[in-house]
Amino acid sequence: MLSLTCLSAPGTGKLPLSGRYQSTLAPLSGRLSLRAGSPSTTNQQRFRLSPTASAVDPDAAADRILKKATQGSKVPNSKKSAILTSGGTGIGVFSLLLLNIIVFVLDLFFPSIIRAMWLNHAAARWWQFISCAFCHVGWEHLSNNLFLLFVFGRIVEEEEGAAGVWVSYLLSAVGGSVASYLTMRHAGYSLGASGAVFGLFAVSVLCKLSFNLKKLLEAAILGQFVVKQVLQEVSSQGALMRGGYGATLGGHSIGHIAHLGGAAAGVLLVFALSKIPAPANA
Description:
Layout: E1 2-6, E2 17-18, H1 58-70, H2 77-83, H3 91-109, H4 111-115, E3 119-120, H5 128-131, H6 139-183, E4 188-191, H7 194-206, H8 213-241, E5 248-249, E6 252-254, H9 256-274
Antiparallel strand pairs: 1-2, 1-4, 1-6, 3-4, 5-6
């Protein structure tokens, strides 16, 4: 998340910005019917296709096989939907990526409308705590967040389904926005998906912690990256609190506290869900 500092130009009242994204398997109407020739036909059997026969769609047949393979299994429905999603990217991550890109494109043509979605620290609206997580100040800002959302969002969706990745993204975004809003004492704006992405960092690691060697190895690999990123944010935020300077992107200040707030929200989400008792028939 970026923080945009606004200072009023004397006598102008303007705020220039400074330094701171089934085949429903149609029923097989093409039924193959085998018809033996009439008794009067000697030693000949004729096999004909029913007049209603049609070509079988190979993609539809593949979907049917996948559905049959997962029927009766212990795979949760959310994971079944992810397995059956074509293209390798679940619909949850795909929709988040697409929405971020759409907002970025709209910003090129309707900047005044999109900038109303930024979190305005001087006069915040409740919906800006969410909407700012879909806004970006430039292509570099957007592309960095899209890459991390694609990688870690897919991991979360594989484990928790499309609803899981959306809930993780939104709650982490709110956590990052609240942290930024409470700690920035000057007038300015916050925007960007990075607070939500840091929440996905945390969720992607924690949801793989189980008594399973494969998942533990995955958690260790992801965890070393996530811990490194979080420690860097702690260090940068500490420097800011001591009067130093934090990192910048495109001349704008990076909201380190928003990243930490998003990660904390992700941890709290997983912790809260872990306390919900499992259904009796699970």
